[in-house]
Every structure is written in C-alpha cells, then in structure tokens.
Amino acid sequence: MKDFRHISEKMETENFGLRSKEYVASEIDLFYERVRLGDLIKISRKLIYHWALYLGSVDGQEHIVVHINGNSVLGSSSASSGSSNPGVMLDPLIEVVGTSKFRIDNEYDFTQNPSPLKDILQRLENEVEELNTCYNVFWNNCEHFVFHLRYNIKRSGQFEKIAAICNTIKSTVMFVVLNHKKFK
C-alpha cells in the first residue's frame, strides 16, 4: 500500500474549473507546466474517454497519474499497458496518454465541490483494494473512480449520455411498435 500523505501539502487551486486546450504527446512539457496536483485528466480514446487524476511525484517518479486500468473493446486505458487485468494503476502520464489527445478537465468544480488533496489521497488509500476487484465499464469505470476521488461522488457523464440516448431509442421504438399495431 502506497502512502500518499507527502503529496497532500502541495495541492494548488490554480486550475479550479479549468478545461484546458487539448494537448498531444509532443506538447507534454507544456502540459506539465500547466497541470497541478489533483487535476483530472481526460484522454481521448477510440469510442470513449479515459480519465486519470494527476499526483505529480510518487516514489521518485515524476508526472504520475492514478487511474483504473479497464482495457475493453471501447478503448484501452493505458496506451502502453499490456495488462488486461483491471485495477488501480499508478503510471507516468506520458505512458497513459500515448498518442491520444488529452486535457485538464476540472469543469465540474463549478457544480461539485472538489475535495482537498488530503481527502483525495485518503479515499485513494481506503479504496484501492475494493476498486481492484469491482471494475465495471458501466457502473464503476475510470471516470467514476476519479470523480469519486476528487468530488466524493461516483458519476460518469459519458455513460449517463449513452444511457439517455439508449432510453430515447427504446422509447421511440416502443412508440412506433405500439402505434403501428393501433393503425393496422
């Protein structure tokens, strides 16, 4: 079990509510100048986004993020990950983003109260074991994970949108089927 307490004194609020421009790997040094401890990082993948939380320096390694490795047909979480086992991962940011576009995305700070870094790290320490065993792309994915760390809530905006679209399609199909029978 990692001890993250040494990080907690360094969190800054400079990026409150920030949704940065998209970066690519060749701009990683510019990104490192902008990113702050506790920032959420949104990474473009095939069909969905992957999410990570920036921790900075951990055990002598620089620019570390925490994320859930949940490789799936929708898009691998880590560009370099050879692991198909889901779990909480501490990886260098550059390895997680690979060739994907990425950005700081703290836009939910305006509707949710971001936790102090010490609380984020305490949640991380408390839940690593549980999260290693119960990954689910729909109900407990990388976005749920980092939102829970930063805001103490579990939510996934991208899957809420997918669920809403599915419900609309289902309602439309049911309406057409029911009304088709009425007019026969």
From TrEMBL:
GO terms for cellular component: cytoplasm. The keyword Cell membrane does not apply. Pfam families: LRAT (PF04970). GO terms for molecular function: N-acyltransferase activity; phospholipase A1 activity; phospholipase A2 activity. InterPro entries: H-rev107_PLA/AT (IPR051496), LRAT_dom (IPR007053). Residues 40-158 form the LRAT domain. It comes from the Eukaryota. GO terms for biological process: N-acylphosphatidylethanolamine metabolic process. Belongs to the H-rev107 family. This is HRAS-like suppressor. It comes from Caligus clemensi (Sea louse).
